[in-house]
Amino acid sequence: MRPFDYMRAEDLQAATEAKGNGATVIAGGTNLLDLMKLEVMAPERLVDITRLDLHNTERTSGGGLRIGALVTNSDLAANPDVRRNWPVLSRALLAGATGQLRNKATTGGNLLQRTRCYYFYDTAMPCNKREPGSGCHARTGFNRIHAILGASDKCIATHPSDMAVAMRALDAEVEVQGSGGTRRMGLDALYRLPGDTPHIETSLAEGEIITAVILPPPPTAATQVYRKVRDRSSYAFALVSVAAVVAMDGARIREARLAFGGLGPMPWRDGEVERALEGQEPSDALFDCASDILLRDAQGQGSNDFKIPLARRTLKAVLREVTRTEAPA
Ligand SMILES: Cc1cc2nc3c(=O)[nH]c(=O)nc-3n(C[C@H](O)[C@H](O)[C@H](O)COP(=O)(O)OP(=O)(O)OC[C@H]3O[C@@H](n4cnc5c(N)ncnc54)[C@H](O)[C@@H]3O)c2cc1C
User: Fold this and answer.
1) Closest CA to 252 of 218, 219, 286, 225
2) In the structure, what pLDDT confidence band is assigned to residue 112 with cuts at 50, 70 and 90?
3) How far is the C-alpha of 178 from the C-alpha of 253, rounded, in Å?
4) Whose CA is closest to atom 50 on ligand 1?
């Protein structure tokens, strides 16, 4: 690990000023410190934000939920209101990492954790995300965990967060604060596709810090499911995951919100898949049609080709579960 300066911010203004002047934010440190030890990231200055008043989870006046950026993954998963009204979020959190990690990991840090691409982690290898312009060996190398949607010829890394997948299905917004004040944006606006600049992962400005995540009021009469497919039953990142929030109206699907992990550089959501399901009676043919839409532009890179049929099977299994329809014999 390279030497670095450390400061602890006592208020938000000090934190945003420090970040605006080039410091890297440290929250739980469960991702950042690993990357610093491997010298994948080598910040000269850290600003520790853990003393800021961002540890609370509370209802908003509109009936939604405001989750402070420093609420730990453990506390959020165990929050009775979250478990009752946004269970997909609790389940996604509990599917991630381990108890010890979740005790340290924070809401803001989880959203901004870096990819687990092996080539990003290996400083002996070129990586356009770590070192712009150096190349991407994942495309022609071992790419079992890599993206099948939204990738570019510069980068095929996936976003590893489980929590963010559930938040995307729940239409969460991120509240950020910087020198220009406070603003809110959806996760689709927070994350950027890699394109030609995979090192620019978010739309956060230099001095901006995530202060909270806002969930809209709980979906009414919806079934919420998070299903994660991975190599081991714990302590492993998703190969494919699906967060589903689906409401029925009699025999028909009234509303479907679906987000996917392990498939792309950001938690993936495709409105066309949802529109194809809404107003329809559940059937295997309908679920096949939804999968076709989701995967119409999917591209395997060799070792990750299996993700295309796996995503289809996982989506169909989740849709059967949330609409309570049986798999054909
Ligand atoms: C062995 C292992 C297994 C794991 N398995 C999973 C898994 O299965 N699923 C999963 O989802 N995650 C998994 N994780 C990742 C874990 O969830 C993240 O490391 C954690 O959520 C990051 O939170 P943190 O507070 O520790 O972030 P930090 O490490 O402190 O920071 C991460 C990044 O976010 C930035 N940052 C942090 N907070 C803010 C803020 N408020 N505003 C602006 N920038 C900020 C930091 O500068 C840094 O770049 C695993 C981690 C490990 C080590």
Assistant:
1) 286
2) very high
3) 41
4) 97
pLDDT beyond 70 at 299:
yes
Is the shortest distance between the CB of 156 and ligand 1 below 6 Å? no
Q: Does 34 map to a domain? A: no
Backbone φ and ψ of 221, nearest 5°: 50, 40
- Give the list of residues 6+ apart from residue 226 with CB closer than 8 angstroms, or none: 88, 91, 92, 95, 162, 165, 166, 241, 242, 243, 244
On average, the pLDDT of the chain sits at: 97
Domain assignment present for residue 227? The answer is: yes
Distance from the Cα of residue 256 to its chain's centroid = 19
CB atoms within 10 A of CB 69: 26
Residue 314 structural domain: 223-323
- What pLDDT, on the 0 to 100 scale, is given for residue 328? 65
Looking at the structure of the chain, the number of domains it has is: 1
CATH code of the domain containing 265: 3.30.390.50
Whole-angstrom distance, CA of residue 82 vs CA of residue 89 = 7
Please tell me the residue having the least CA distance from ligand 1 atom 13.
97
Asked if the model's pLDDT at residue 136 lies above 70, the reply is yes
Tell whether 275 is covered by a domain. Answer: yes
Q: Does residue 89 contact residue 76 with C-beta atoms inside 8 Å?
A: yes
Pairing of strands 209-215, 173-178: antiparallel
Give pLDDT, residue 329.
Answer: 61
101 ligand 1 Cβ < 6 A: yes
Neighbours of 141 (CB within 10 A): 14
Please indicate, yes or no, if residue 38 is contained in any of the structural domains.
no
Q: With residue 25 as reference, give the H or E element that holds it.
A: strand 24-26
Tell me the C-alpha distance between 246 and 327, whole Å: 18
209 lines ligand 1 (CB under 6 A): yes
